Amino acid sequence: MASLCVPANLPDVAEDVEQLHKAFSGWGTNEDLIITILGHRNAYQRKLIREVYASTYGEDLLKTLDKELTSDFERVVHLFTLDPPERDAFLANEATKKFTSSNWVLIEIACTRSSEDLFNARRSYHARYKKSLEEDVAQHTSGDFRKLLVPLLTSYRYEGPEVNTHLANSEAKILHEKISHKAYNDEDLIRIIATRSKAQLSATLNAYNNDYGHAITKDLKEDPKDDYLKLLRATIKCLTCPEKYYEKLLRLAINKMGTDESALTRVVTTRAEVDLKRIKEEYYRRNSVPLDRAIAKDTNGDYEKMLIALVGAESA
After folding, report:
1. Opening angle at CA 227, ends 224 and 231, nearest 5
2. Separation CA 73–CA 305 (nearest Å)
3. Which residues neighbour 82 within 8 Å (Cβ) at sequence distance 6 or greater?
4. Vertex 230, ends 145 and 221: CA angle to 5°?
5. Which candidate, 227, 312, 299, 220, places its Cα nearest to that of 263?
6. Is pLDDT above 50 for 87?
7. Which class for 270: exposed (0-12), middle (13-18), buried (19 or more C-beta within 10 A)?
8. Considering the chain, what percentage of its residues have pLDDT values greater than 70?
9. 96: nearest Cα among 39, 153, 13
10. Number of CB atoms found within 10 A of residue 170's CB
C-alpha cells in the first residue's frame, strides 16, 4: 500500500470540515458534496477531518453521517470514513454476530491484511468493544471453524521474502498426507496455514502442485457442500492470491439475482486504498467488463456515485 501523505495545507482540512457541516445544514443533505470530499480523501486526511470536525462542532462526524444518510449510501460512506483498523474491527464484530457459510469477513481480515494491520485491527477491537476479537470469535463459533479462525486471527506472520525450500517440500508432504486421510482439521495442517509467512506458504503450495500434479484447493473439494472446506479454500485463496478471491466475490455480488450490496460495499471500501487496481484488472480479465461499468449497471443514486468515486480513486 502506498504511504499516505500528510496534507501540506492544514486549512484545506478546515475547509473540508466547514463544507461538510454545510452539507448537513439547510433543507436536506447535500450528498454530492459529501461524496466530493470523503470519496476523494486518503485515510490520514479522513482521520484528520473527523478530529477537526469534532473539535470544531462538538459532534462525531460518523454519528452525523449516520443520522443524515440512509441505506446503502450511509453504509458505504460510514465504512470508508472509518480509519482502516476501526473499519476492520467494526466488520469483524458484525461477523461474529452472524457468521454463516457465506460470510467470510473474518477470513478476509485474518488473511489479506499485513501482520501489522491485523494487529492494529485487534487493538482497535479492544478499544471499541472492551474485549478481544479472538474471545468473541471463540464464543460465537465452534468445532472446526473455531479451530481454524482463532489461530488465523491471532497470527503475526513474518513478512520477509525468504523461503526455505526443504521446509516447503516437507510441509507439502505433511499437507498431502493429512488431506489424503481427510484430516482437514489436523493440528499440523492448521499450524502450517495459520503461521507460515505468505512467501513460505506459497512455496509450500507450489511444491504441493509440483509433487502431486494439481493445486491443493482441488483436493479440498472432496465435498463441495462442506462449509469448513469452503472456508479452508477461501483461506488459502486470501493468503496466496487475494485479487482472485475478491474478483470472485465481486462477480457473485454483482451478477447474481439482486445485488449483494453488503459484499460489494465491503470489498470496495476495504480494498480501495490497498489493491483495488489489481482486483479491477482481474475483474476485467475474467469478465471482459470494467468493474466501474458493472457497478454502474447494478446500482444507482448516491450509492452508485460513492462506489464509482472509490473504484476510480486509485487511478485518478
Report:
1. 100
2. 9
3. 62, 90
4. 125
5. 299
6. yes
7. buried
8. 93
9. 153
10. 12
Hey, CA dihedral for 210, 211, 214, 219, is it positive or negative?
A: negative
Query: Closest Cα to residue 44, out of 76, 90, 1, 108?
Result: 1
* Count of other CB atoms within 10 angstroms of residue 142: 9
> What pLDDT, on the 0 to 100 scale, is given for residue 236?
97
Asked whether 247 and 282 are in contact (CB, 8 A), the reply is yes
Read off the amino acid at residue 118. Answer: L
pTM: 0.92
Whole-angstrom distance, CA of residue 133 vs CA of residue 93: 7
**At residue 100, does pLDDT exceed 70?**
no
**What cell does 113 get?**
491484511
Place of cell 451478477: 255
Helix residue ranges, H only, the chain: 10-23, 31-38, 43-57, 61-68, 71-81, 84-97, 105-112, 115-129, 133-140, 143-154, 165-180, 187-195, 198-212, 216-219, 227-240, 242-255, 261-271, 276-287, 291-298, 301-313
Instruction: Give me the pLDDT at residue 259, please.
Output: 83
On the CB side of 103, how many CA atoms lie within 13 Å of its CA? Answer: 15
Name the phi and psi angles at 42, rounded to 5. -80, 175
pLDDT of residue 27: 80
DSSP for 252-264, written as a single string: HHHHSSS--HHHH
Q: How far is CA 36 from CA 9, 25, 30, 59, 247, in A?
A: 18, 17, 10, 21, 26
Angle separating helix axes 84-97 and 105-112, nearest 10 degrees? 140
C-alpha cell at 74: 450511509
